[in-house]
Amino acid sequence: MLKAFIGFDPPETVAFYVLAHSILRRSSIPVSITPLMRSQLQGLYTRARGPTESTEFSLTRFLVPALSGYSGWSLFMDCDMLCRADIAELARETQRHPDKAVLVCQHHYVPKTQRKFLGHVQTRYERKNWSSVMLFNNAACGALTPEYVNAASGLDLHRFKWTTDERIGALPLTWNWLVGEYPYDPEAKIAHFTLGGPYFDDYRHCDYAEEWFAELSDMQYVEKRAP
Questions:
Q1: Could you read off the pLDDT of 194-211 as tens digits, one per residue?
Q2: Residue 194 near residue 109, CB atoms below 8 Å
Q3: What residues does 179 pair with on adjacent strands?
Q4: pTM of this structure
Q5: 34 near 6, Cβ under 8 Å?
Q6: Which of 18, 37, 57 is nearest to 193 (CA)?
Q7: String of DSSP letters for 126-185
Q8: Could you tell me whether strands 133-137 and 190-192 are parallel, antiparallel, or unpaired per DSSP bridges?
């Protein structure tokens, strides 16, 4: 079974459910999906939300190894995504990289905008968006204790200063395709609405928006039966 954690942020509640639905209906393996909700981490996560944290899960994502008991592999995903492929394909990447502590899509880009959804500042930093999809080899992530996650700077966490470069494995970029930053690709396996999802008015016509709304409709479908 693949253990998946999806970041949960109240303004993007619908995004969580659509992403979860898109994963489950395409998966050929059992998947357990846990919403990573700040309200459920009291006592474990104690730091105040910083001014550059655009979501409630900006830093709580790094608690996934602790929440997994530092055992097995776990997947973390931002909620503003649409899964377009069988997540089993992504899970198989762990077999190819058993010696790595974490597997990520290693983006090399400079954001095109100064602002993103809901007017949040588009923070620029090295290794931006590497942490939006992470496959954690939990036993190799012992440095990510709750104490460290609560004390470390956000930049150190997102730039993977808690491990070594040699232990960061690379995933194909199609598993975290940045909508609005990269051109449309019909082969994208996970569309990441990093600037803002189609559930926000300003992004209703972005790439993959029609697919996202179709997923929403499919999730809400109730079969009409004859009386």
A1: 999 999 999 999 999 999
A2: no
A3: 182
A4: 0.90
A5: yes
A6: 18
A7: TTTTGGGEEEEEGGG-TT--HHHHHHS-HHHHHTTTTS-GGGEEEEPGGGGEEBTTB---
A8: unpaired
